[in-house]
Write a structure and sequence with these properties.
Layout lengths: L7 H13 L4 H8 L3 H13 L3 E4 L3 E4 L4 H9 L13 E3 L4 H11 L3 E5 L5 E6 H8 L15 E2 L12 H11 L3 E8 L2 E9 H10 L6
Parallel strand pairs: 3-4
Antiparallel strand pairs: 1-2, 4-5, 5-6, 7-8
Helix pairs in contact: 2-3, 5-6
This protein binds adenosine-5'-diphosphate.
Length: about 210
């Protein structure tokens, strides 16, 4: 379900079904002086969006769900897996200087730090790198594991998590990004990245592709 805003004809159909349902497509068309074929796309949209339900040989009836209810239903269907981006990971022994170059090259605001076994050990934000850079000349000799936020203090999520829960976590923890992880025997493998940008895109996608 995506389209929330209805056009005038869809509103008219909704009113007719509210008052007369269950009612066949044929009868709705008659009331509007239109053909059944003309109405078909509107009925399909109203059914897909969850405003109407259709039963064979009975007709259309109103589900009684408000736009707000339908909107919250579709928000609760959004999963991390459908909105995540590719993660950018660096090794814990990389220098702060190289990490800064990586952040620019990869055009991300958060780097995830892994060990030799490719398991998550830390997170580096823009400010972590800025803080270290102020007034220092030895950025080539400081490895990122010295300055990163480390396990077990990393906030993580899984592919199956609900996007809305992750949005709340970003707010509560006051962070910009979370690694999407898969549990392994000795730790966590980083399989994705969820950032405020992903959440913003998901928010816009609620309007559907045509908007
Ligand atoms: P910035 O520091 O650039 O504003 P953030 O708000 O994301 O970016 O980071 C704030 C602090 O929280 C940083 O010290 C960073 O290392 C840490 N941090 C960022 N993401 C996470 C996370 N997923 N789990 C734990 N700590 C994090």
């Amino acid at each position: 379900m995506s389209t929330i805003e209805l056009n005038k004809r869809q509103e008219q159909i909704l009113e007719i079904v509210k008052e007369n349902g269950p009612i066949t497509g044929e009868h709705i068309a008659e009331k509007l002086n239109l053909t059944r074929a003309t109405l078909r796309p509107d009925l399909a949209i109203l059914t897909m969006a969850g405003f109407l339900d259709a039963r064979p040989r009975v007709g259309y009836f109103y589900t009684g769900k408000s736009s707000t209810e339908l909107l919250s239903e579709s928000i609760k269907k959004m999963k991390v897996a459908d909105y995540q981006s590719i993660p950018v990971v660096v090794n814990e022994n990389m220098s702060v200087y190289d990490a800064i170059c990586n952040m620019f090259l990869e055009d991300v605001g958060t780097l995830f730090v892994v060990n030799e076994s490719s398991l998550l050990v830390g997170v580096l934000s823009r400010k972590d790198l800025l803080r270290t850079s102020i007034g220092r000349q030895d950025l080539n000799t400081i490895p990122v594991h010295i300055i990163m936020t480390r396990m077990p203090n990393i906030t993580m999520c899984a592919k199956e998590d609900l996007l809305i829960d992750i949005a709340k976590l970003l707010i509560d923890k006051q962070i910009d990004a979370l690694p999407v992880v898969k549990e392994e025997e000795n730790g966590y493998e980083v399989v994705g990245r969820i950032t405020k940008t992903n959440i913003t895109k998901a928010f816009v996608s609620l309007l559907g592709n045509d908007n």
